[in-house]
Automatic annotation (TrEMBL):
The lineage of its organism: Eukaryota, Metazoa, Ecdysozoa, Arthropoda, Hexapoda. Transmembrane segments: none annotated. It comes from Pieris brassicae. Residues 111-153 form the SWIM-type domain. This is SWIM-type domain-containing protein. The keyword Zinc-finger applies. It comes from the Eukaryota. Keywords: Endonuclease, Exonuclease, Hydrolase, Metal-binding, Nuclease, Zinc, Zinc-finger.
Length: 348
């Protein structure tokens, strides 16, 4: 029944066959299968570039192809408008197979186009096939085939091919000056300037220029305070240990004096009570922050005891100048501590 072009299977096949005979298969024609285009496997194809051996595809050949099918197609225009996405080629024996992807004119899709070239007949087009509605079989002559032929023809003649470009392929040109400057280069100081007053970069007036001007500038830079101004790189850092190792004129050494000043060494019982009282507000009190910054607390104890020489400087910097620490649990604690204290759940 299928051979007669019937759809589905009849309940009484013999009766149905008789009916088909009587009515000449109900007008169904013998289904002719199109000759299928056999392209090599995808892994044999390589992108076409200037070195790809290709049979000469001339303008005359493309013209002859168009005339053969008496087609009126705008393949050249579509090619110049960059409808071709890719073009690849594979050699199989004497034949050259070309495969390309061509954008559809009105839809946002692309068709795979195949062309088989015969080198013995000077690049004659042996077979062509396209995925579009008009390009079935092995004699496709739709505009997509022409776009591919124009692309490969250009590559043969000029070693270039116009392919579809994505937006990032185009070099940016918004920094390119609009006007081209042809004169000789100008010195920056001679550029036109609206400002009339001249800037004096000297720190001192000329009449006050002293003998040891350089030392004066160095001293000013060093005693400026906490800064990373570039001039400091020209000055050797002071040896802080030299002060400690130097002969002592005071009762206490400088180190001891510093530690006492920071209340890190032998604080009096009154002073201890004082610290306790003034830091009860914890993170809300600046004194609490100050005292914390020069002590090894439980939070950084592990880091300090496990620090290496190479990281100690960084760690000290981190402890001295801590970044505010925030996490979900700490935020929760800070928000709810006053509530709990107020409700006397835990009477502190
Ligand atoms: Zn097509």
């Amino acid at each position: 029944m299928k051979a007669r072009g019937a759809v589905g299977s009849p309940r009484e096949p013999n009766f149905a066959l008789e009916a088909y005979d009587r009515n000449a298969n109900f007008g169904a024609e013998e289904v002719e299968e199109d000759e299928a285009y056999n392209a090599p496997a995808a892994e044999y194809f390589r992108d076409i570039n200037g070195n790809t051996p290709l049979p000469p595809i001339t303008k005359q050949l493309i013209q002859a192809f168009v005339e053969r099918f008496q087609a009126q197609l705008n393949g050249r225009q579509m090619y110049e408008e960059r409808f071709l996405l890719t073009a690849r080629a594979a050699a199989d024996g004497d034949f050259t197979f070309i495969q390309g992807q061509c954008k559809a004119l009105m839809k946002k899709i692309f068709y795979v186009v195949d062309v088989k070239l015969n080198p013995w007949l000077v690049g004659s087009i042996e077979q062509s096939h396209c995925e579009c509605a008009a390009g079935s079989g092995v004699e496709a002559h739709c505009k997509h085939v022409l776009v591919l032929l124009h692309g490969v023809g250009d590559m043969v003649r000029t070693k270039t091919m116009l392919l579809h470009q994505v937006c990032t392929q185009k070099l940016m040109d918004f920094k390119r000056p609009r006007k081209v400057y042809f004169d000789s280069p100008k010195q920056a100081q001679k550029l036109p300037c609206r400002r009339t007053r001249t800037v004096n970069y000297l720190l001192l007036k000329e009449e006050d220029m002293m003998e040891n001007y350089n030392d004066h500038i160095k001293n000013m830079a060093v005693s400026y305070g906490n800064t990373t101004m570039p001039i400091l790189q020209t000055i050797r850092p002071a040896n802080t240990y030299a002060v400690e190792n130097d002969h002592q004129y005071t009762q206490k050494s400088l180190k001891d004096e510093l530690l006492t000043d920071l209340l890190l060494m032998n604080p009096s019982p009154e002073k201890m009570l004082d610290i306790e009282r003034s830091t009860r507000q914890q993170h809300q009190s600046t004194e609490w922050q100050t005292h914390r910054s020069c002590r090894i607390t439980a939070s950084n104890f592990h880091a300090v005891t496990h620090s290496k020489a190479s990281t100690q400087k960084h760690l000290a910097q981190k402890i001295l100048d801590p970044k505010p620490f925030v996490s979900r649990p700490t935020t929760h604690g800070r928000m709810n501590e006053p509530v709990i204290q107020k409700n006397q759940i835990f009477p502190f």
